[in-house]
């Protein structure tokens, strides 16, 4: 191990890590308000362009834990650099894409960049003085959330001043600079964790999810009773069964199925899956709705900037409520807070389904949505920690976060199927498509609330809930999700 005097100062290391995380955080959300523009420029359909988001979510849900584990095995710094290079390569391909197929492949490559978060937290844990750990971890976590929110706001001005290709050129430049700085300035950690990667579970998880998502997104075109849709659904079921069997036998499973059997775990994960369905579906389709020209009989003909601002209240309220939810969990229990968050989340989905007259209704809806999701996200941390042995808290938290991302990919595809089911002669969706889609999301939030009711209550859960908010998570790198939300764990 190099002497302390030879190692890069931790503040320099932090600046480099922050640059990499910032590039990744921006790429999460820059594309969201611009999906209609990408659809028009690449001459594709609304259901197909949704895969620009879905492919990223799928890839990130697989590669976030994999890249973190590889970093523990062979060195966090070199894997951090490799992850940034993959992120830059995906950005380059996306900037040059002349077809939606190439764009989708590029976004899947960008999903590898999900590894920057667990790797950055791991490097901080290894390199920073103990008294500086909490502040650095909190700053990087906040940066990922703020960066994702800024991406929604910045997308419009960037497209107006340049064009949508610069949504990828600018982060690519930042990513390349961060990769070079990381290579030369970030010290390689001497900490290694022996182990290996089980690739079969990752491949099977990808396979059954792709089969399911293709069936859901293409069913309106092919027909729900068509051989292709039925065949894909059957394949998804068989591949999912094979995935579960392989996970049960794997020495290092991607998702621990033994842990999944615990009632407190699977109920929380079901809530996380359904919240993911709602959150990402809104992020993907609300901009499409508000950008629809008024000539269609609905919509607001909003610009990209305006549609991004409509989503901004959800980011602000989610962050604020997440900071304050700990006190509420101490008073009424984490289970009650999750249930409250799910019930609150029904309201914005109903507003989005039926309140289509004024933009203030949409601002109100997204603000309430942030409150509901913020409550649920924050409280699930304590419940997950209370549900598993201390040595499994990090893995359980990371699993819960990844399941939420998987829910997001399913929600985006399902919403695309409903919204585009009966298009107008102009090719635009009918207003009823959005009404039915957002009403479906309200139903998903009701089911999430029912799942929250089934979460077992325990005194341990109250004790953990009361203790959690007072301290920073010991291993937050194990609880990141592609959408920028963080779930941590207590020290082992």
TrEMBL record:
InterPro entries: MFS, MFS_dom, MFS_trans_sf. It comes from the Bacteria. Pfam families: MFS_1. It is found in: Cell membrane. Keywords: Antibiotic resistance, Cell membrane, Membrane, Transmembrane, Transmembrane helix, Transport. Residues 13-460 form the Major facilitator superfamily (MFS) profile domain. It is a multi-pass membrane protein. The chain crosses the membrane at residues 12-36, 48-67, 79-98, 104-124, 136-158, 164-186, 198-217, 229-246, 266-286, 298-324, 336-356, 362-389, 401-421, 433-455. This is MFS transporter.
């Amino acid at each position: 191990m190099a002497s302390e005097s030879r190692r890069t100062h931790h503040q320099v290391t932090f600046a480099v890590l922050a640059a990499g995380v910032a590039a990744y955080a921006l790429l999460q959300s820059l594309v969201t308000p611009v999906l209609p523009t990408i659809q028009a420029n690449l001459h594709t359909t609304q259901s197909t362009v949704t895969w620009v988001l879905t492919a990223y979510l799928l890839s990130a849900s697989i590669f976030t834990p994999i890249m973190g584990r590889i970093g523990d095995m062979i060195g966090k710094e070199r894997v951090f650099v490799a992850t940034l290079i993959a992120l830059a390569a995906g950005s380059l391909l996306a900037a040059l894409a002349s077809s939606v197929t190439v764009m989708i492949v590029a976004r899947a490559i960008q999903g590898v960049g999900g590894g920057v978060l667990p790797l950055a937290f791991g490097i901080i844990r290894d390199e920073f003085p103990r008294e500086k750990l909490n502040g650095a971890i909190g700053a990087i976590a906040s940066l990922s959330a703020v960066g994702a929110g800024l991406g929604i706001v910045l997308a419009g001005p960037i497209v107006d001043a340049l064009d949508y290709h610069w949504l990828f050129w600018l982060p690519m430049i930042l990513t390349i600079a961060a990769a070079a700085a990381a290579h030369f300035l970030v010290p390689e950690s001497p900490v290694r964790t022996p182990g290996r990667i089980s690739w079969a579970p990752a491949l099977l998880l990808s396979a059954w999810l792709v089969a399911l998502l293709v069936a859901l997104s293409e069913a309106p075109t092919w027909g729900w009773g068509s051989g292709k849709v039925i065949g894909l659904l059957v394949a998804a079921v068989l591949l999912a069964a094979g995935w579960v069997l392989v996970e049960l036998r794997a020495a290092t499973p991607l998702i621990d199925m033994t842990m999944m059997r615990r009632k407190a775990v699977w109920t929380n994960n079901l809530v996380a899956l359904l919240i993911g369905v709602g959150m990402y579906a809104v992020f993907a389709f609300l901009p499409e709705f508000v950008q629809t020209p008024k000539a269609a009989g609905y919509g607001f003909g909003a610009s990209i900037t305006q549609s991004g601002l409509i989503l901004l209240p959800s980011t602000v309220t989610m962050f604020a409520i997440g900071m304050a939810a700990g006190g509420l969990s101490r008073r009424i229990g984490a289970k009650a807070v999750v249930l409250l968050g799910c019930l609150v989340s029904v309201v914005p989905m109903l507003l989005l389904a039926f309140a289509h007259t004024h933009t203030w209704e949409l601002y109100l809806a997204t603000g309430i949505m942030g409150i509901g999701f913020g409550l649920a996200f924050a409280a699930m941390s304590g419940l997950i920690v209370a549900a598993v042995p201390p040595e499994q808290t990090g893995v359980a938290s990371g699993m819960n976060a990844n399941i939420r991302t998987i829910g997001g990919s399913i929600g985006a595809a399902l919403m695309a199927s409903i919204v585009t089911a009966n298009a107008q002669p102009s090719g635009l969706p009918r207003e009823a498509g959005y009404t039915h889609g957002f009403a479906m999301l309200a139903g998903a939030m009701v089911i999430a609330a029912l799942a929250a009711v089934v979460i077992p209550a325990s005194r341990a859960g109250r004790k953990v809930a009361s203790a959690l908010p007072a301290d920073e998570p010991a291993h937050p790198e194990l609880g990141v999700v592609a959408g920028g939300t963080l779930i941590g764990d207590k020290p082992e």
